[in-house]
Amino acid sequence: EAHRPLAGRRAIVTSGPTHEPIDPVRYIANRSSGKQGHAIAAALATLGADVTLVSGPTRLPDPPGCTVVAIETAREMLAACAAALPADIAVCAAAVADWRVDGASDRKLKKDGGRPPSLALTENPDILATLSRPGEGRPALVVGFAAETGDVLAYATAKRARKGCDWIVANDVSPGTGTFGGSDNTVHLIRADGVESWPTMAKDAVAARLAEAVAEHFAGK
Ligand code: PMT
What was the ipTM of the complex prediction? Predict the structure, then answer.
């Protein structure tokens, strides 16, 4: 018989980059491929969860067994996550743009021989922090990621507290690690009771192990 410990549980997973428009043809983005987030959505679905994957633009196929909501901007990602509630589990693996262009142009910016334009930025909503906010409708288990380029454990531990999530998966995204875009990841799972450092694994294997940890968490409830 299939091992489906998360049957009956609803999960929201965010994945990929966001694209923040500058004008109708240009945008600000980042190097996230969506591999880690999509693998987590697939792994939770394999364990029986009813998964909504909210994803920015990627080149990946939709993971089997998931409802996929395609978005471009951080504000669209937040709205899609809110629409997918209620959920028991939320995993935020997306690389959401921290800032968007304030007052993006609805016409293509022209190179008219004058000075190059300057872009004013404004802060985007924080989806992880919003989902983590205490209150009715908060998923019972909210898992964030922390993408760091140094002092990974210290920054990630502080991020867990600041965002209010239950667990945080810390990964080093320094140049040369290949964490953004590559197939492998080296992560630390930070929970209230301590840190587990996992060996370097394929992102699919990280996802499978994380999904098992989620299942064990609910089995213990
Ligand atoms: O997509 P891949 O190529 O497979 O790469 C995987 C990954 C490196 C993108 C992934 O493993 C990862 O680390 N994702 C989080 C990237 C990130 O933006 O981290 P952060 O430390 O800036 O953000 C912390 C957390 O807050 C994350 O859970 C993020 O999803 C969330 N966040 C951040 C800003 C924002 N406005 N809203 C958010 O929800």
Answer: 0.99
Q: What is the 3-state secondary structure (H, E, C) of 78-118?
A: HHHHHHHCCCCEEEECCECCCEEECCCCCCCCCCCCCCCCC
Options 3.30.70.1050, 3.40.1190.20, 3.90.76.10, 3.40.50.10300; CATH of 10-219: 3.40.50.10300
Q: How far is the CA of 92 from the centre of ligand 1 (A)?
A: 7
Taking CA atoms only, the protein residue closest to ligand 1 atom 27 is 145
Statement: residue 112 has pLDDT above 90: no
Q: Does residue 20 carry a pLDDT above 70?
A: yes
Ligand 1 mutation pick, 128, 152, 201, 203, max ligand atoms within 8 A of CB:
128
The token pair that represents 108 in the structure block? 């293509």
Return the structure tokens found at 145: 């990621």
**Does the active-site annotation cover 30?**
yes
For 130-149, what is each residue's pLDDT tens digit? 999 999 999 999 999 999 99
Mean pLDDT of the chain: 97
- Pick from 177, 170, 174: nearest CA to 154: 170
